[in-house]
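ok trying this again, last paste got cut off
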Amino acid sequence: MQPVILAIESSCDETSASVIQAGKVLNNVIASQTVHQKYGGVVPELASRAHQQQIYEVVNEAIDKAGIKLSQLNAIAFTRGPGLLGSLLVGVSFAKGMALALQCPLIEVNHMEAHVLAHFIDAPRPTFPFLCLTVSGGHTQLVLVNDHLHMQVIGETRDDAIGEAFDKAAKMMDFPYPGGPLIDRYAQQGNPTAFSFPQTQIPGLDFSFSGIKTAFLYFLRDKKKAEPQFVELFRNDICASLQFHLVSMVLEKLKLAAAQTGIKAIAIAGGVAANSELRSRLRAQADKLGWNVFIPEFQYCTDNAAMIAMAAHYKFLAQRFASQDVAPVANLAIAD
């Protein structure tokens, strides 16, 4: 059977819906939330309220654009976690109600697993096994992917995620939210060796970004004491230097993981996978080490329902359905 599945993503501050048919994603509707900009970060309560306001229209748009009827849906998929509990609850509740009304199965999807499976939306697609570096505002992980439904986290951050380090550094420089993409933009005009920051070294494949984040805070404090306009004067060089060091930290661990496993199929996923420095340096490292690199389209890097739909497709084929008493889990982990 080639299923038609509606997928809903509501883990943080993007309300998204997508329809997949016979393994082909038909659309990817995303409604962003601008309410958080004046607060300099996502406010969980405001995020959940915005999801409530947007989810009905977003789902309707996805169904209309797909040109299908509700009666054609074979399953309703949703993000169970990880994410903000209030935001997840909106998506889970909507999916459960819709599945109950249509008398069709529910499919729960792990948000991080879906980021990995975004690589199967379009060609070229990685072959198994492959390594995936998942980098976002909430997570930094090295994942060994054995097949569509079997993954193992072999390295992860012990404190902050790389995306959080980008956003917090941007906030320290008084950039508007979200600041990570602004650092990337300014960095392209700066000198990556202008300033040096300490890179935390942890044995094995785990990461740590709290140290460089704290060092950056003190760096700005000391520089601004001597020159109050320091950030304005050296903005591009500051961004380029910080970005260079953060990207170096994840690429060093990725290189180590590839050497330990002998795997040369390498993928990146998550919101930070849209970072231009990471993409360009990953391709350069691939040429040097003989890797076969896979990078999703920009629209599939950030939170989106198309990746949820892709994961749901493989779960449907394996008949992995959820019950109506399923509840969201804020810190849901990848389970092999």
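PB: full thing came through this time. The chain has two domains: 4-117+300-317, 126-296.
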